[in-house]
Amino acid sequence: MTMADLCRLSSDRLYRFFPCLSDPARRSSLLLKVALVLLHIVCAGVLFLFDKGFVENARTEPWYTALYLLLFAVTLVQYFITSCSSPGYVIDVMRAVNEQNSLLRNRTKQRQPAASKSGSFVISLDGSQSQSGGSFVASDTTYWAKMVMDLYPPGTTLGACTCSYCNIEQPPRAKHCHDCDRCVLQFDHHCVWLGTCVGQQNHCKFWWYICEEAALCLWTAILYIAYLKAHIEVSWWKDIIMIPLLVFMSISLIFLILLLLFHSYLILTNQTTYELVRRRRIPYMSYSHHGDG
Ligand SMILES: [Zn+2]
Ligand SMILES: [Zn+2]
Predict the structure, then answer these.
(1) Is residue 289, in this structure, part of any structural domain at all?
(2) CA-based angle 273:275:280, to the nearest 5?
(3) Within a domain: residue 261?
(4) Minimal CA–CA distance to 220: which of 53, 60, 63, 40?
(5) Is the same domain home to 112 and 229?
(6) Mind listing the pLDDT tens digit of every residue in the chain (293 residues)?
(7) Stated pTM of the model
(8) Measured CA distances, 58 to 26, 62, 82, 198 (Å)
(9) How far is the CA of 208 from the centre of ligand 2 (A)?
(10) Which ligand is nearest to the CA of 161?
(11) Distance CA 263, CA 98 (A)
(12) How many domains does the chain have?
C-alpha cells in the first residue's frame, strides 16, 4: 500500500465520522472558523500569560477583567450566530408565502362546501379560478409571481426578474448568490469570513458583529500598548511575540472601523454593498434614476 492510498483511506474514514468534512467548501469554512477562534484565544491568552499586572488586576478589580472576558465571549458567540443565520433566502420566503396561501385557501374552501360539491368554481385569493387540487402548484407559483410583480414598478416584464438558476421570480433587491446557490433577499455580499451571505435577515447581526469585533480589537490593542510601554526592555522574546500581534491587530482595527462606518452608512441610507457597487447595472436602480430625472 502506497502513502497516497493510506492518506485516502484515513481521510475516507474521517469523512465517514464527520460527513460535513467531505465537502471542500464546508471543510474550508470549518477550518476558517477554527483559525478565527484560535486567533482570538492567542491574542487574549498572550495578555494573561505575559502581563502579570493584568492578572494581578483581575484580583483587585475583577469587574474590569470580567468585562473584557464578557466582550470576548459575546464577540465569538455573535460570530457564530451571524455565521449560522439565514440571510433571507427567496426560496424559503416563497415556500412560507405559498404555505400560508394554501392554508388560507383551504379555509375558504371549507367555508364554501356547497359550491365545491356542486363542481362550480372556487375563487382563490389570487383571483385565479381553481377547480381541483391538481392545479395547486401552478396557482401557487402564479400567486408568488403576481405578488412579486406588484413590488416592481409598473411596466416591468416578469422575464427580467426570473432567476435562471433557481427558476423562481425574484423580488426587487434580491440577487442570486453563486456560493450559496440560492437567491438572497436584499443581497449585500457573500462573506467568506462568515461562510454565508449577508442579506436582509442578517445585515443587522453582521453590523453588531463588526461593532463587537472592533471594540474587542481596540481594547486588546490598548492593553498590549500599555504592557509594551512599561516592559519593552524587560524581555525581548515577549516583544517578538507581542509586537507582530499588535501590528496585526492595528491593521485589523483600521479595516474593522472602515467596514463599520461603511455598513452604518449603508443601513442609514437603506442600501446594500451590491447596489452601491453595481448601481448602473441594476435595472431597478437605473429605473428609479430615470424616474427622478
Ligand atoms: Zn437564484
Ligand atoms: Zn452566498
Answers:
(1) no
(2) 135
(3) yes
(4) 40
(5) no
(6) 677 777 677 777 777 777 767 788 788 888 999 999 999 999 999 999 998 888 888 889 899 999 999 999 999 999 999 999 999 999 998 888 888 888 888 887 777 654 444 433 333 343 333 334 444 455 566 777 888 888 887 777 766 788 889 888 888 889 999 999 999 999 999 999 999 999 999 999 999 999 999 999 999 999 999 999 988 887 888 889 999 999 999 999 999 999 999 999 999 999 999 999 887 776 666 554 444 43
(7) 0.78
(8) 39, 5, 31, 38
(9) 19
(10) 1
(11) 33
(12) 2
Residue type, 18: F
CA 216 to chain centre: 21
Ligand nearest to the CA of 197: 2
How deeply is 163 buried, as exposed, middle or buried, from its count of CB atoms within 10 A (0-12, 13-18, 19+)?
Answer: middle
Q: Return the SS3 of 247.
A: helix
Which of the 8 DSSP states describes residue 126? T
The question of whether 161 is a catalytic residue gets the answer no
Task: Give the residue from 184, 216, 243 where a domain finishes.
Answer: 184
Residue type, 288: S
E-strand spans in 121-221? 122-123, 129-130, 162-163, 168-169, 175-177, 182-184, 189-191, 196-198
Q: Do the beta carbons of residue 52 and residue 228 sit within 8 Å?
A: no
Q: Which three cell numbers stand for residue 204?
A: 443587522
* Domain of 238, in residue numbers: 22-88+197-281
Residue 176 C-alpha to ligand 1 middle, in angstroms?
Answer: 4
Pick from 207, 188, 208: nearest CA to 198: 188
C-alpha span between 11 and 249 (Å, rounded): 35
Q: Of the candidates 184, 214, 236, which is a domain's last residue?
A: 184
Q: Which residues surround ligand 2, an ion (CB under 5 A)?
A: 177, 179-180, 190, 197
Q: Using an 8 Å Cβ cutoff, are 176 and 131 in contact?
A: no
